[in-house]
């Protein structure tokens, strides 16, 4: 039995640990300090604003902070129409209150009763916090380089049937955890895999949230309708401490983007090289690996003896032409911090659409488990959920909790990268493809031609097919269109 148990333990990765590094060594805002900035707790309330039936797809919820409903009415209607056009059943709710427990209970009911698969949080919706003492090497004891951390934890809203408890408090004198309660979760067990995908459009720590979110939603609509200029390539930029893994990670980004600019030379990866790259060239995706803090990135040079500083406040001026970001960059997605870097990339550039990153030290590993479903046409939120579920498959070891529990997705999680195909190329009219009365139901397609493509109802390519049997199970349930050299026919994929 001991041998079997040992085999079930996920080995600690031989990857250099990300560190929270800032130019002034200032710590992030803690839970108590953050809570003092919040307005008085309002009574929890959820109100259904609209329900637009879709077909063949699962349910998605748009949850909107109550004060934003009026100023965002028009862009929310556009978002609802876009998602409905993609086949989703879309419910939009007004949300009032600060209770993370109430929000999670609401999501659980939606999941059980309405088959909820994903939700977009818009505005200052409730935040769950988690605390731990990092255990990077999994030895179950505290080592000199392992610190206490407390941070926003969106996994709490993705895992709806696991057990989350507050059993410990921080003992400041020794920066340790002792028995007690302090409104911060510290224990998670049971069925810990996430059931739904979650993303946040969180702008109040960046600027006027109504203005920023309205502009952002307009950008999402432009992207979905093919009116946002994008380049079909990625920039993979990996600083000194991860050059041993750089080739592998670059190849994994390649599951989604065959065309990539790859920079991993330890003396080249500096701010003076990074800034002009994101200022003068266009990419659809950026994979950035660098020690960071919420306000920017720290990059090594001079054989690791010196630091360069990239400040997030420069992002609006640079206005990078990049749509999506994977920020392997400590605390870059800590949305409770003023001017957080991930939020500036997404909300304060003319092309920003989404960023995945962490609210603490650590970030994503096993990138293939994320990029592979994206390459098969999955949305950001579902790829994020699948990645988390894969990591949770054998339970979370202490090192995995340290690396992963701060992971969050900033932006509209129902977007799909590589939205490149214009309907003019594949279907001159009408703008939206309507299925005929007869359809084929399938989990796989056997192609008797050299190649074909699979389109979603808005004309976007979601899969390239080849001669023989093509497995469709990685794709979400829904209506698609198989285009070959001489025909277009509808396919209903069922999982």
Overview in brief:
It is built from 14 helices and 25 strands. It is of the alpha/beta class. The strands form seven sheets. The chain has a six-stranded mixed beta sheet, sandwiched between helices. Strands 1-3-2-4-11 form a five-stranded mixed beta sheet, sandwiched between helices.
Low-confidence stretches: 1-7, 421-441
Mean pLDDT: 89
Cα-based radius of gyration, to the nearest Å: 22 Å
* Span between termini: 36 Å
Structure write-up:
This protein has 495 residues and is α/β, with parallel strands linked by helices. It has 14 helices and 25 strands. Mean pLDDT is 89; it is low at 1-7 and 421-441.
Descriptive terms for the model:
single chain, alpha/beta, 6-stranded mixed β-sheet, 5-stranded mixed β-sheet, 14 helices
Strands, helices and their partners?
Elements: H1 2-8, H2 31-36, E1 45-52, E2 59-65, H3 73-85, E3 89-96, H4 100-114, E4 116-122, E5 129-133, E6 148-152, H5 155-158, E7 163-165, E8 168-171, E9 176-179, E10 187-189, E11 197-201, H6 209-224, E12 234-238, H7 246-253, E13 260-263, H8 271-280, E14 282-289, E15 291-293, E16 296-301, E17 306-311, H9 315-318, E18 321-328, H10 341-347, E19 354-358, H11 368-375, H12 380-392, H13 398-404, E20 407-411, H14 423-426, E21 440-442, E22 444-455, E23 461-471, E24 478-483, E25 488-493
Parallel strand pairs: 2-3, 2-4, 4-11, 12-13, 12-14, 14-18, 18-19, 21-25
Antiparallel strand pairs: 1-3, 5-6, 7-10, 8-9, 15-16, 16-17, 19-20, 22-23, 22-24, 24-25
Helix pairs in contact: 3-6, 11-12
